[in-house]
Amino acid sequence: QFHTMFKSFSSTYQPRRSHITSFQNPHARLRFSTGQGKPKAQICIIGSGPSGFFAAEHLMRAENDLNVQIDIYEKLPVPYGLVRHGVSPDHQEIKYVTTKFEALANDPRVRFVGNVEVGKDVSIDELRSSYDAILLAYGAEGERMMGIPGEDNTKFVHGSRNFVGWLNGHPDHREDFDFSTVTSAAIVGQGNVALDVARILIKGPEALKSTDITHEAISVLEKSKINTVHLIGRRGPAQAACTTAEFREIISLEGIVPYAFEDEMILNPESEEELKKNRGPKRQYELMQQKLKRISSLDAIDPTKKALVFHFLRNPTQVINDDMGNVTGIELERTILTGPPNKQSAKGSGDRFVLPCQTVFRSIGYRSIAIPGVPFDPNRHVVPNQTGRVTDLDGNKIPGMYTCGWVKRGPSGIIGTNRFCAEETVESMLQDVKAEDMKWSGDKLGFDTVGSILKKSGIRHVSFEDWGRVNKVEEELGKSQGRPRTKITTREHFFKHL
Question: What are the CA-CA distances from residue 307 to residues 193, 228, 248, 319 (Å)?
């Protein structure tokens, strides 16, 4: 659901005029109180995605006029996290939020430190000795697995995160996708990211050539033979995870017929009760009833047109591979919803069938990963915390460590959720300063210390000025090709422009 967050933000967020000169000018400075005369607090934010930038914004707007230096560390040589690498290329308007983050990054009290992996290039202990506070905002880099036999076929079974990252030129997502022999694709999941993947696979490359999708991806999609995409959900149509806007967009694609099985569209009494009290899901279900063509078997699909098939109440149990290592189908089990309204879960019925397909995508959620030296809950896949204050697994607070965003609460919510999440964490930090639970003496040296560590290790960090030069190259290349930008997708190529 990541891209929907930015649609919401772009349409609703209005910066305070008293603090900001202009977000229209990407080089505009933000005007914040400077906290002169107070000890300078060295604050380290790990992660340069939305949550990291929102946290920096709240720190600089702090009502008690903090005197801060904020250093934002990023594993990649480029900023903006999932805004750059996780938003579908055909949703360019969402990526314009980076202009607002750029304005913040141009403030002299904010430093971008790219191409530095915390836990590898510099340790948490080294950061803690150099900064007054550490704020973990590194998001959810991993993804959930289906955990079924046959899933380990990496040639034809893919993760949606890797696929979207590859479309967007993520330097660590360099998979060799090949759809030249694929006519049918199955996507496990029905959230917005799943719909992103389906839309890219089925709409064709011509509509994408004016976006910032990579040339490599366009070349692969031009050779694709996919004409049918299946979207598989464990629960019913009333519980579909996608938003109505994204559902409406994909079923409105030209030349595509959307289908659903007649018996899977029938609601149980508990689901009917859910819709009575939830206007959004009710509206979406009504749209499904109007727009999805009902079928009783796959034989009813029109072979002359591209098909988008929604499967409800189906859970994957096995990816079927032949002796040559090719995917030939995915086994699905019919599920039954049990439990009261709004708390229903899907239970297997034992009724199984094989859905023919030649490639499978899993899109069942992202998950955060652990950083060495940072407490981590292996069950919830988040950093344990109390209102943003990092704790150990026993609930004991760790002084000077905070967290916000997906790594704090899990990959959920809209853009406003991330903004308020960062605000809550910063408020906890300020309360600790006021209560003297955390003292900022002004004797920490921040990047002056860490920079020396990186230099001794031979680590070339990337500044925001460095990124600005590469950003200009990308935009100029894109302009010559009628695109917003042409992305530089490898670290080697990136550093050639510095």
Answer: 19, 5, 15, 21
Dihedral of alpha carbons 450, 455, 457, 460, sign: positive
Q: Per residue in 238-262, pLDDT tens?
A: 999 999 999 999 999 999 999 999 9
How large is the average pLDDT for residues 464-492? 96
DSSP states along 437-471: SS---S---THHHHHHHHHHHT---B-HHHHHHHH
**Quick check: 121 pLDDT over 90?**
yes
Contact 454, 122 (CB under 8 A): yes
**What was the pLDDT predicted at 54?**
93
Distance (Å, rounded) from C-alpha 27 to C-alpha 58? 20
Q: Report CA-CA distances (Å) from 255 to 250, 300, 305.
A: 11, 17, 7
What's the pLDDT tens digit per position in 266-299? 999 999 999 999 999 999 999 999 999 999 999 9
In which element (H, E) is residue 414 found?
Answer: none
Strand-pair partners of 390 = 385
By DSSP bridging, strand 68-73 and strand 110-113 are: parallel
Residue-level pLDDT at 40: 85
CB 210 within 8 A of CB 482: yes
Predicted pLDDT at 10: 42
What pLDDT score does 17 carry?
Answer: 29
Closest CA to 44 of 78, 80, 72, 79: 72
Q: Which residues contact 450 (CB under 8 A, 6 or more apart)?
A: 71, 113, 122, 126, 127, 130
Tell me the mean pLDDT in the region 196-218.
95
| 52 contacts: CB under 8 Å, gap ≥ 6 | 45, 46, 72, 81, 135, 137, 138, 404, 405
Residue 80: strand, helix, or coil: coil
- What's the rounded Cα separation, in Å, for the pair 190 and 312? 9
DSSP 210-258: TTT--HHHHHHHHT----EEEEE-SS-GGG--S-HHHHHHHHT-TTEEE
> What's the pTM value of the predicted model, to 2 decimals?
0.90
In angstroms, the CA 416 to CA 425 distance is 14
- Which backbone phi and psi does 179 adopt, to 5 degrees? -115, 20
**Six token digits for residue 421:** 């999440």
Type and span of the H or E element at 305? none
In this prediction, residue 417 carries a pLDDT of 79
What is the rounded radius of gyration, in angstroms, for the C-alpha atoms of the chain?
24
